[in-house]
């Protein structure tokens, strides 16, 4: 600690990266250098995404959050390998959200869904719900089940 720090503050540089470990229902999630990991690369995602999902989806999913995220990461990996897979620019999604007053996003996976929608999911599966599910929706049809008409209603 500096006894008399300069008025503008200071930056401390560490020789080794800092690690923060979350104990999520008995499972250790290690966050370091912008990446959160579970076990020996069972799950690896951006720290910001981990902290976001544990905050908005964690309270409802509890101990099911990590198995769910592992499944979603596998789903996303398969979607990324598919030749037709693509992600819509967040600028476009923000514009659609503003134009239509949308509060729900449907499509993509939990590890890629835009965090600025109060409610998000794919098909009948909800990732997080901090808003009204009856709000107008933005739907990405590309990564939805092959028969989306079974769940898209009016």
Structural notes for this entry:
The chain has 154 residues and is α/β, with parallel strands linked by helices. The protein has 2 domains: 19-81, no CATH class; 90-150, no CATH class. Helix content is 27%, strand content 23%. It is built from 4 helices and 8 strands. The strands form 2 sheets. It has a 4-stranded antiparallel sheet with strand order 1-2-3-4. The longest helix has 17 residues, at 65-81. The radius of gyration is 19 Å and the shape is globular.
Q: Which overall shape is indicated by the principal axes computed on the Cα atoms?
A: globular
Head-to-tail CA distance between termini: 60 Å
Domains (count): 2
Most strands sheet? 4 strands, antiparallel
Radius of gyration (CA) equals: 19 Å
Q: What portion of residues is helical?
A: 25-40%
N-to-C SSE string, H for helix and E for strand? EEEEHHHHEEEE
Unreliable sequence segments: 148-154
Q: How many strands appear in the DSSP assignment?
A: 8
Structural class: alpha/beta
Mean pLDDT, nearest integer? 85
Task: Kindly estimate the percentage of residues that lie in beta strands according to DSSP.
Answer: 15-25%
**Sheet with most strands: strand arrangement:** 1-2-3-4
Number of helices: 4
